[in-house]
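User: quick one, fold this
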Amino acid sequence: MGEDTPLDAARPLPGGTPIRVSPSRLRRENPEPLVKTRTAADTPAMQSRDILRSALDDAASTLKAFVADEENLRAVVKFAETASETLDRGGRIYACGNGGSMSDAMHFVEELSGCFRRQRSALSALAFSDPATLSCIANDFGYDQVFSRQVEAHGRTGDLLVALSTSGESENVVAATRTAREMGLRTVGLLGRGGGKLATEVDLPIIVPRAQTSDRIQEVHLQVLHAVIESIERRLFPENNDVEDPEV
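Assistant:
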């Protein structure tokens, strides 16, 4: 039957005799599609693209908000100056954090003891991340002391501790900064969510604005660490500033 045929229209039999067809039977024989046709925007690929674009836009907005604050830029400059002075005097840089922040601490120091953009002499840096040391201290003294004991073991007056915490509330990081201060180390905090306790415990707090999730905060922390490493290399190894990147 055509689109204009009424639901109770007669349907002819093969012999020509018409019969009445009930509306319910017509609906059974001609059901409407249960699944509507998808548009391009409804496909998984387009949904995935929107999610990824949103995440990248959010990351860019967080970094833009950080850079827009002159106080943040001054703090990063001070961080780079302090780190360069520490290393130039023969001191050492330490870094600590939990989870992703520990990964960032390890990333930071390996760029110093190895190299970042140019081949040059190794720089003295240590992340408190050795699993045997961490488990030993945690077992014997408690997890709150896993970093402070290592500051006590390795730190010397004039060294620098870089403390990473997205909340600013990590008790083991707070304990490390207090031990560092007592021993005459200088301290920098890469923080988030207002800075928490660490904002007043460290000599130089650098606090990521806007973001409330650890991933967005850590992304800016890593940007800061890379910028500081580049600055250190340019300050301490000016002869390398115009050298092309080595082949990998």
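User: anything notable?
Assistant: The chain has one domain: 60-235.
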